[in-house]
Protein backbone atom coordinates (compact mmCIF):
# COMPACT_ATOMS: atom_id res chain seq x y z
CA UNK A 1 0.00 0.00 0.00
CA UNK A 2 2.78 2.46 0.84
CA UNK A 3 4.44 1.82 -2.54
CA UNK A 4 1.14 2.69 -4.22
CA UNK A 5 0.85 5.85 -2.11
CA UNK A 6 4.36 6.94 -3.06
CA UNK A 7 3.58 6.46 -6.76
CA UNK A 8 0.56 8.70 -6.29
CA UNK A 9 2.75 11.25 -4.52
CA UNK A 10 5.25 11.28 -7.39
CA UNK A 11 2.43 11.74 -9.90
CA UNK A 12 1.14 14.61 -7.75
CA UNK A 13 4.61 16.20 -7.79
CA UNK A 14 4.76 15.99 -11.58
CA UNK A 15 1.30 17.49 -11.88
CA UNK A 16 2.12 20.46 -9.65
CA UNK A 17 5.72 21.03 -10.72
CA UNK A 18 4.80 22.96 -13.84
CA UNK A 19 2.41 25.25 -11.97
CA UNK A 20 5.15 26.13 -9.47
CA UNK A 21 7.22 27.64 -12.29
CA UNK A 22 5.21 30.74 -11.36
CA UNK A 23 7.96 31.25 -8.78
CA UNK A 24 11.21 32.89 -9.92
CA UNK A 25 14.10 30.46 -10.31
CA UNK A 26 15.47 29.40 -6.93
CA UNK A 27 17.62 26.69 -5.38
CA UNK A 28 14.78 24.85 -3.62
CA UNK A 29 12.27 24.25 -6.41
CA UNK A 30 12.14 20.46 -5.88
CA UNK A 31 11.76 20.86 -2.12
CA UNK A 32 9.04 23.48 -2.43
CA UNK A 33 7.08 21.36 -4.89
CA UNK A 34 7.34 18.35 -2.58
CA UNK A 35 6.32 20.39 0.47
CA UNK A 36 3.21 21.75 -1.25
CA UNK A 37 2.17 18.28 -2.38
CA UNK A 38 2.72 16.83 1.10
CA UNK A 39 0.70 19.57 2.79
CA UNK A 40 -2.12 19.05 0.31
CA UNK A 41 -2.10 15.33 1.07
CA UNK A 42 -2.36 16.10 4.78
CA UNK A 43 -5.35 18.36 4.14
CA UNK A 44 -7.23 15.53 2.49
CA UNK A 45 -7.09 13.71 5.81
CA UNK A 46 -7.60 16.63 8.19
CA UNK A 47 -10.58 18.16 6.38
CA UNK A 48 -12.35 14.80 6.27
CA UNK A 49 -11.79 14.26 9.98
CA UNK A 50 -12.81 17.80 10.96
CA UNK A 51 -16.19 17.22 9.31
CA UNK A 52 -16.72 14.29 11.67
CA UNK A 53 -15.35 15.68 14.95
CA UNK A 54 -17.77 13.69 17.09
CA UNK A 55 -15.92 10.53 16.08
CA UNK A 56 -12.35 11.90 16.18
CA UNK A 57 -10.14 10.32 18.84
CA UNK A 58 -8.16 12.83 20.90
CA UNK A 59 -5.78 12.78 23.84
CA UNK A 60 -3.96 15.20 26.15
CA UNK A 61 -0.17 15.48 26.08
CA UNK A 62 2.18 16.09 28.99
CA UNK A 63 2.02 19.85 28.46
CA UNK A 64 -1.81 19.73 28.68
CA UNK A 65 -2.22 20.52 24.96
CA UNK A 66 -4.55 18.37 22.86
CA UNK A 67 -3.54 15.93 20.14
CA UNK A 68 -5.94 14.22 17.76
CA UNK A 69 -6.01 11.42 15.23
CA UNK A 70 -5.71 14.12 12.58
CA UNK A 71 -2.44 15.50 14.03
CA UNK A 72 -0.80 12.08 14.02
CA UNK A 73 -2.13 10.97 10.63
CA UNK A 74 -1.13 14.26 8.98
CA UNK A 75 2.38 14.01 10.44
CA UNK A 76 2.62 10.47 9.10
CA UNK A 77 1.74 11.30 5.49
CA UNK A 78 3.94 14.41 5.36
CA UNK A 79 7.04 12.72 6.78
CA UNK A 80 6.49 9.62 4.64
CA UNK A 81 6.26 11.70 1.46
CA UNK A 82 9.33 13.80 2.21
CA UNK A 83 11.44 10.87 3.47
CA UNK A 84 10.93 8.99 0.22
CA UNK A 85 12.22 11.97 -1.77
CA UNK A 86 14.89 13.29 0.62
CA UNK A 87 16.11 10.26 2.61
CA UNK A 88 19.01 12.15 4.20
CA UNK A 89 16.88 14.98 5.64
CA UNK A 90 15.94 15.11 9.29
CA UNK A 91 12.67 16.11 10.94
CA UNK A 92 11.66 18.25 13.90
CA UNK A 93 7.96 17.55 14.34
CA UNK A 94 5.45 18.10 17.09
CA UNK A 95 3.86 14.69 17.61
CA UNK A 96 5.35 11.49 19.03
CA UNK A 97 3.73 8.08 18.55
CA UNK A 98 5.95 6.60 21.26
CA UNK A 99 4.76 9.18 23.80
CA UNK A 100 1.11 8.49 22.98
CA UNK A 101 1.58 4.74 23.37
CA UNK A 102 3.38 5.30 26.67
CA UNK A 103 0.37 7.30 27.87
CA UNK A 104 -1.97 4.45 26.94
CA UNK A 105 -3.42 6.17 23.87
CA UNK A 106 -3.27 3.16 21.54
CA UNK A 107 -6.79 3.83 20.23
CA UNK A 108 -5.63 7.21 18.96
CA UNK A 109 -2.65 5.58 17.22
CA UNK A 110 -4.82 2.87 15.67
CA UNK A 111 -7.32 5.44 14.38
CA UNK A 112 -4.48 7.57 12.95
CA UNK A 113 -3.02 4.54 11.17
CA UNK A 114 -6.41 3.83 9.61
CA UNK A 115 -6.75 7.46 8.50
CA UNK A 116 -3.26 7.42 6.93
CA UNK A 117 -3.89 3.97 5.40
CA UNK A 118 -0.83 2.34 6.99
CA UNK A 119 -0.28 -0.26 9.68
CA UNK A 120 0.22 0.76 13.30
CA UNK A 121 3.85 -0.32 13.13
CA UNK A 122 4.43 1.68 9.95
CA UNK A 123 2.75 4.74 11.41
CA UNK A 124 4.87 4.65 14.59
CA UNK A 125 8.10 4.31 12.61
CA UNK A 126 7.20 7.15 10.24
CA UNK A 127 5.79 9.59 12.81
CA UNK A 128 8.85 9.22 15.04
CA UNK A 129 11.40 9.65 12.23
CA UNK A 130 13.89 12.34 13.31
CA UNK A 131 17.49 11.73 11.98
CA UNK A 132 19.02 14.27 14.43
CA UNK A 133 22.45 14.30 12.74
CA UNK A 134 21.16 15.48 9.36
CA UNK A 135 22.72 18.55 7.75
CA UNK A 136 19.29 20.00 7.06
CA UNK A 137 15.85 19.25 8.43
CA UNK A 138 12.13 19.81 7.96
CA UNK A 139 10.10 21.45 10.70
CA UNK A 140 6.49 20.29 10.85
CA UNK A 141 3.41 21.19 12.82
CA UNK A 142 0.85 18.79 11.31
CA UNK A 143 -2.08 20.68 12.82
CA UNK A 144 -1.12 24.08 14.13
CA UNK A 145 -4.11 25.25 16.13
CA UNK A 146 -5.46 21.90 17.33
CA UNK A 147 -7.91 23.70 19.64
CA UNK A 148 -9.26 25.56 16.62
CA UNK A 149 -9.48 22.29 14.72
CA UNK A 150 -11.53 20.78 17.55
CA UNK A 151 -13.89 23.78 17.54
CA UNK A 152 -14.43 23.40 13.80
CA UNK A 153 -12.53 26.66 13.27
CA UNK A 154 -9.20 27.70 11.74
CA UNK A 155 -6.06 25.57 11.77
CA UNK A 156 -3.20 24.93 9.38
CA UNK A 157 -0.46 22.49 8.46
CA UNK A 158 2.86 24.35 8.77
CA UNK A 159 5.96 22.96 7.06
CA UNK A 160 9.39 24.47 6.53
CA UNK A 161 12.88 23.41 5.53
CA UNK A 162 15.88 24.53 7.60
CA UNK A 163 19.19 24.69 5.75
CA UNK A 164 22.50 26.55 5.77
CA UNK A 165 21.85 30.05 4.44
CA UNK A 166 23.68 33.36 4.32
CA UNK A 167 21.67 35.50 6.68
CA UNK A 168 21.43 36.50 10.33
CA UNK A 169 22.16 32.97 11.55
CA UNK A 170 23.97 29.88 10.30
CA UNK A 171 20.73 28.17 9.31
CA UNK A 172 17.45 29.59 8.11
CA UNK A 173 13.96 28.57 7.03
CA UNK A 174 14.52 28.44 3.27
CA UNK A 175 11.10 27.03 2.37
CA UNK A 176 7.80 27.74 4.13
CA UNK A 177 4.36 26.29 3.37
CA UNK A 178 1.12 27.01 5.22
CA UNK A 179 -1.87 24.86 4.31
CA UNK A 180 -5.00 26.62 5.57
CA UNK A 181 -8.05 24.48 4.69
CA UNK A 182 -10.65 26.82 6.20
CA UNK A 183 -9.64 30.20 4.76
CA UNK A 184 -11.57 31.42 1.75
CA UNK A 185 -10.20 30.70 -1.72
CA UNK A 186 -9.03 34.31 -1.99
CA UNK A 187 -7.12 34.00 1.29
CA UNK A 188 -9.62 35.97 3.35
CA UNK A 189 -11.30 35.10 6.64
CA UNK A 190 -15.07 35.33 6.77
CA UNK A 191 -17.07 34.72 9.91
CA UNK A 192 -19.34 31.70 9.75
CA UNK A 193 -17.66 30.20 6.70
CA UNK A 194 -15.44 27.15 6.60
CA UNK A 195 -13.89 28.27 3.29
CA UNK A 196 -12.45 26.31 0.38
CA UNK A 197 -8.90 26.57 1.67
CA UNK A 198 -5.59 27.95 0.39
CA UNK A 199 -1.95 26.96 0.27
CA UNK A 200 0.60 29.72 0.91
CA UNK A 201 4.17 28.90 -0.15
CA UNK A 202 7.46 30.78 -0.05
CA UNK A 203 11.13 30.16 -0.80
CA UNK A 204 14.10 32.35 0.04
CA UNK A 205 14.71 34.87 -2.72
CA UNK A 206 11.69 33.70 -4.72
CA UNK A 207 8.81 35.50 -3.00
CA UNK A 208 5.54 34.30 -1.51
CA UNK A 209 2.57 32.94 -3.46
CA UNK A 210 -0.90 31.56 -2.78
CA UNK A 211 -3.32 29.23 -4.55
CA UNK A 212 -6.75 27.77 -3.74
CA UNK A 213 -6.29 24.30 -2.26
CA UNK A 214 -7.84 22.38 -5.12
CA UNK A 215 -6.26 24.42 -7.91
CA UNK A 216 -2.90 25.54 -9.24
CA UNK A 217 -3.56 29.22 -9.75
CA UNK A 218 -0.62 30.80 -7.93
CA UNK A 219 -0.73 34.54 -7.28
CA UNK A 220 1.97 36.62 -5.53
CA UNK A 221 1.36 37.88 -2.00
CA UNK A 222 2.57 41.20 -0.64
CA UNK A 223 2.12 42.65 2.82
CA UNK A 224 0.33 45.99 3.21
CA UNK A 225 3.39 48.28 3.43
CA UNK A 226 1.17 50.99 4.92
CA UNK A 227 2.57 54.46 5.61
CA UNK A 228 1.20 54.69 9.16
CA UNK A 229 -0.45 52.44 11.72
CA UNK A 230 -3.65 54.50 11.86
CA UNK A 231 -6.68 52.25 11.22
CA UNK A 232 -4.42 49.23 10.75
CA UNK A 233 -5.67 45.77 11.71
CA UNK A 234 -4.22 43.68 14.55
CA UNK A 235 -4.18 39.87 14.24
CA UNK A 236 -3.62 37.77 17.34
CA UNK A 237 -4.35 34.37 18.82
CA UNK A 238 -7.47 33.22 20.61
CA UNK A 239 -5.79 31.53 23.59
CA UNK A 240 -5.02 33.89 26.46
CA UNK A 241 -1.99 31.76 27.41
CA UNK A 242 -0.30 32.74 24.15
CA UNK A 243 -1.76 36.22 23.73
CA UNK A 244 -1.77 38.95 26.35
CA UNK A 245 -4.88 40.62 25.00
CA UNK A 246 -4.66 43.47 27.48
CA UNK A 247 -1.12 44.40 26.40
CA UNK A 248 -1.97 44.14 22.72
CA UNK A 249 -5.07 46.28 23.25
CA UNK A 250 -2.96 48.98 24.90
CA UNK A 251 -0.50 48.81 22.00
CA UNK A 252 -3.37 49.05 19.51
CA UNK A 253 -4.65 52.21 21.20
CA UNK A 254 -1.17 53.76 21.07
CA UNK A 255 -0.83 52.97 17.37
CA UNK A 256 -4.45 54.03 16.65
CA UNK A 257 -5.33 50.69 15.13
CA UNK A 258 -8.90 49.62 14.46
CA UNK A 259 -10.78 48.99 17.67
CA UNK A 260 -11.44 45.27 17.14
CA UNK A 261 -8.60 42.83 16.42
CA UNK A 262 -9.00 39.65 14.41
CA UNK A 263 -8.45 36.58 16.56
CA UNK A 264 -7.91 33.10 15.21
CA UNK A 265 -5.86 29.99 15.86
CA UNK A 266 -2.73 28.82 14.06
CA UNK A 267 -0.25 30.26 11.58
CA UNK A 268 -3.20 31.01 9.33
CA UNK A 269 -2.72 34.43 10.97
CA UNK A 270 0.53 34.78 9.02
CA UNK A 271 -1.19 33.79 5.80
CA UNK A 272 -3.54 36.73 6.37
CA UNK A 273 -0.63 39.06 7.15
CA UNK A 274 1.33 37.94 4.08
CA UNK A 275 -1.69 38.53 1.87
CA UNK A 276 -2.26 42.08 3.13
CA UNK A 277 -5.38 41.14 5.12
CA UNK A 278 -3.90 42.38 8.37
CA UNK A 279 -1.14 44.74 9.42
CA UNK A 280 0.25 43.70 12.79
CA UNK A 281 0.65 40.35 14.55
CA UNK A 282 1.48 39.91 18.22
CA UNK A 283 2.19 36.79 20.26
CA UNK A 284 2.75 37.59 23.91
CA UNK A 285 2.83 34.36 25.92
CA UNK A 286 2.89 33.96 29.67
CA UNK A 287 6.27 34.66 31.33
CA UNK A 288 8.67 31.72 31.20
CA UNK A 289 7.09 30.06 28.18
CA UNK A 290 9.67 28.87 25.63
CA UNK A 291 8.40 28.87 22.04
CA UNK A 292 8.55 25.77 19.85
CA UNK A 293 10.16 26.17 16.46
CA UNK A 294 7.26 24.59 14.56
CA UNK A 295 5.03 27.49 15.60
CA UNK A 296 7.16 30.01 13.67
CA UNK A 297 9.59 28.52 11.13
CA UNK A 298 7.18 28.41 8.19
CA UNK A 299 5.60 31.73 9.20
CA UNK A 300 8.98 33.45 9.23
CA UNK A 301 9.75 32.45 5.65
CA UNK A 302 6.23 33.34 4.45
CA UNK A 303 6.06 36.77 6.13
CA UNK A 304 9.56 37.86 5.13
CA UNK A 305 9.23 36.72 1.53
CA UNK A 306 5.92 38.61 1.30
CA UNK A 307 7.77 41.78 2.36
CA UNK A 308 7.00 41.87 6.07
CA UNK A 309 9.13 41.87 9.22
CA UNK A 310 9.03 39.38 12.09
CA UNK A 311 11.22 39.63 15.21
CA UNK A 312 11.20 39.13 18.95
CA UNK A 313 10.26 41.98 21.30
CA UNK A 314 13.80 43.34 21.19
CA UNK A 315 13.81 43.54 17.40
CA UNK A 316 16.11 40.55 16.96
CA UNK A 317 15.52 38.16 14.03
CA UNK A 318 14.10 34.81 15.10
CA UNK A 319 16.62 31.98 15.04
CA UNK A 320 14.77 28.87 13.80
CA UNK A 321 17.89 26.73 13.45
CA UNK A 322 18.36 25.71 17.09
CA UNK A 323 16.25 22.54 17.10
CA UNK A 324 12.94 22.05 18.89
CA UNK A 325 12.86 25.36 20.78
CA UNK A 326 13.53 28.99 20.03
CA UNK A 327 16.06 30.77 22.22
CA UNK A 328 14.70 31.02 25.76
CA UNK A 329 15.32 34.79 25.73
CA UNK A 330 12.48 35.24 23.19
CA UNK A 331 9.66 36.62 25.33
CA UNK A 332 7.24 37.46 22.53
CA UNK A 333 7.01 37.85 18.78
CA UNK A 334 5.78 40.72 16.62
CA UNK A 335 5.26 40.73 12.86
CA UNK A 336 4.54 43.82 10.76
CA UNK A 337 3.24 44.19 7.24
CA UNK A 338 5.29 47.38 6.93
CA UNK A 339 8.92 46.90 8.03
CA UNK A 340 9.46 50.67 8.10
CA UNK A 341 6.93 50.84 10.96
CA UNK A 342 8.15 47.79 12.84
CA UNK A 343 10.20 49.65 15.45
CA UNK A 344 7.19 51.84 16.30
CA UNK A 345 5.11 48.69 16.76
CA UNK A 346 7.73 47.13 19.03
CA UNK A 347 7.85 50.25 21.19
CA UNK A 348 4.06 50.24 21.52
CA UNK A 349 3.89 46.52 22.36
CA UNK A 350 6.64 46.74 24.97
CA UNK A 351 4.97 49.75 26.53
CA UNK A 352 1.68 47.85 26.54
CA UNK A 353 3.30 44.97 28.39
CA UNK A 354 4.82 47.30 30.96
CA UNK A 355 1.63 49.29 31.59
CA UNK A 356 -1.43 48.39 33.65
CA UNK A 357 -4.95 49.66 33.06
UniProtKB/TrEMBL annotation:
Mg(2+) binds at residues 94, 141, 143-144, 295. It is an enzyme of class 3 (hydrolase). The keyword Hydrolase applies. It comes from the Eukaryota. Its cofactor is Mg(2+). Transmembrane segments: none annotated. Its EC number is 3.1.3.7. Keywords: Hydrolase, Magnesium, Metal-binding. One of its GO terms (biological process) is sulfate assimilation. Pfam families: Inositol_P (PF00459). GO terms for molecular function: 3'(2'),5'-bisphosphate nucleotidase activity; metal ion binding. Belongs to the inositol monophosphatase superfamily. This is 3'(2'),5'-bisphosphate nucleotidase.
Amino acid sequence: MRRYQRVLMLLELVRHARSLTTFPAHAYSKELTAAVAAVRRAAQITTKLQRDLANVESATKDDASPVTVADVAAQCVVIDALSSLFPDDGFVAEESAADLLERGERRCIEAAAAAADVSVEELCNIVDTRRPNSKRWWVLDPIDGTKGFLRGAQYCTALSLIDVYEGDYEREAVVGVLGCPNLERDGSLREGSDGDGVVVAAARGAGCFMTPYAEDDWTPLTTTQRASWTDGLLIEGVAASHSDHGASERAARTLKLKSEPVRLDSQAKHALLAGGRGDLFTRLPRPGYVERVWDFAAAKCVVEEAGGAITDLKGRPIDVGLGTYLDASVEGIVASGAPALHREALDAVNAGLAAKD
